[in-house]
Description:
Two copies of one chain form a homodimer. Chain A has about 325 residues and is of the alpha+beta class. Chain A is built from eight helices and twelve strands. Chain A folds into two domains: about 15-155, CATH 3.30.1330.10; about 165-320, PurM-like C-terminal domain (Phosphoribosyl-aminoimidazole Synthetase, Chain A, domain 2, Alpha-Beta Complex), CATH 3.90.650.10. Helix content of chain A is about 30%, strand content about 25%. In chain A, the strands form two sheets. In chain A, strands 7-9-6-10-8-11-12 form a seven-stranded mixed sheet, sandwiched between helices. The N and C termini of chain A lie close together (about 10 Å). The relative contact order of chain A is 0.16. Residues about 1-10 and about 330-335 of chain A have low confidence and may be disordered.
Amino acid sequence: xxxxxxxxxxxxxPRVGDISERQLLRSILARLGPTAALVGPGDxxxxxxxxxxRVVASVDTLVHGPDFRLAWSTxxxxxxxxxxxxLADIAAMGARPTALLVALALPNxxxxxxxxxxxxxxxxxxxxxxPGCAVEGGDLTVSDTLTVAVTALGTLDGREPVLRSxxxxxxxxxxxxxxxxxxxxxDVLFRRFRDxxxxxxxxxxxxxxxxxxxxxxAQLRPAPPIALGPAAAxxxxxxxxxxxxxxxxxxxxxxEASAVTVAVDSAALGARRGWAVDGGEDHGLLATFPPGxxxxxxxxxxxxxxxxxxxxxxxxxEPYVGRxxxxxxxxxxxxxx
Amino acid sequence: xxxxxxxxxxxxxPRVGDISERQLLRSILARLGPTAALVGPGDxxxxxxxxxxRVVASVDTLVHGPDFRLAWSTxxxxxxxxxxxxLADIAAMGARPTALLVALALPNxxxxxxxxxxxxxxxxxxxxxxPGCAVEGGDLTVSDTLTVAVTALGTLDGREPVLRSxxxxxxxxxxxxxxxxxxxxxDVLFRRFRDxxxxxxxxxxxxxxxxxxxxxxAQLRPAPPIALGPAAAxxxxxxxxxxxxxxxxxxxxxxEASAVTVAVDSAALGARRGWAVDGGEDHGLLATFPPGxxxxxxxxxxxxxxxxxxxxxxxxxEPYVGRxxxxxxxxxxxxxx
Lengths: 337, 337
């Protein structure tokens, strides 16, 4: 965005540095849809009803460079993903997301239309993945680095939270959502949509086969199975978490928290099993259930919980040794894009 | 921080880029003190008890450059201020802060000790300003620009929230907390602690008189009167907000939200009245009360609410025209520090 020709070239789409915060907020709020809060956006803080008597809360940040690139993500994609990854953290507790607070730090040269389309993406994700959840507050500030920090709040609706620590020997291990698509999509982006200097270039979907398109979409605009979080809790899930860093790393975390060994059958992970084990960002739900309970539709069994052995994680009955949670964004020179 | 000599010079204080996220989290959590949450840090999300049935929630972001400079703020200062400004938003609703979620985006070259001292500052602010409030969740990520986004949650303990929109003609206008100190402190920093090229240099407090030291402290480590938010609500405050952008801009916002005119007597703002009107970042509490009600100790009367006239704000009976909310950070070339 440093090569941006400046406001003269876009008189109908001003830079946020040339718009008052009030104007900018008004154009965002108009796009966010109805509020369900007792006090919604516009005061010092939002006030939300939590009849359950408990609130579930999580925050996650997306930073331009390590976490996304504007050459690849549209503003809508970025808004959608910012919401989706946070909704997944709430769902992973067995809760239903009810509100988002969105802190957006923008370079001055960002266009007003960017912010509007970002807001559309937030609303789109809430509407498709977590109906009833809305943006109820936020913050706008200036930064050299485009940064989105989203706080998601949710309700357990009377359920007990499903922690990482509740898995017991004999439980089945089940997964809902994508397995490897987002990591494969990131690989496609890195291999196919960078120029000779390594700088990201826009994605041309017509150069991709349908499987590649699906994977790139899973990376740029993930759609985690949010409603399956509460469904898993209702079905008796003993432990659950959101798979953000790949099955290997996240199943190891669940195993460590529960003091068990998790044994994964890689064939059950499907065609992209390698990406599913080592990659990340699918934001599926990894859960354990007592043996014999009917799983909510959308979950499939991928392994078993065993008494703790030396290794916390077995893949196809072998202790797992790998580059768990590989993140090419991190290994990539920040200067190239 | 770009001139940092790198890890070899600090073998006992590694770069965060060389520490695993798990290690870093462990060292932070060890410093944050006891959790009051049903589920505290370490799972996908925190679960907090909210017996009131409503939760108050706000987010605010501090970005290196526009909002703070590490040449001036110690890591402890930054942690303290990040908490304090968010606690003030909760207090301004008449609520008691109960939890913080802290999203921290750090350059790889940041030292581990920085993060520890930042955590100490968060804990210090909670302990001094809002006992019972603790960090219950967060997120660590990598960024070229050091960014702190804090979400504060709070409880009304059965009170009604105090909005900006409730002021009525005849009410008194009262202020608690600093008036102008933070803006005066920022002026001292800009005038006295930059080198010939405009780059910030460390603050030498021994070169300042006690009044200047107090103002610099109010800027770098503000201590808003958090407990007076609920006290004002209990005393019958009709409207309230946190003064982040100066009395002129924030009183205008309150007047607009309430469809009234606010008349401020600048003499009541004390010795730094000019800074109080035009400056910002004091994070005091501006509240209106029905005439005749005893104000909670710590509030002083600074004006009256009148029926809406042409101007939303009068200062010393004249419609206010000024550079409301001047922010020298924003006007300052980002390249110089």
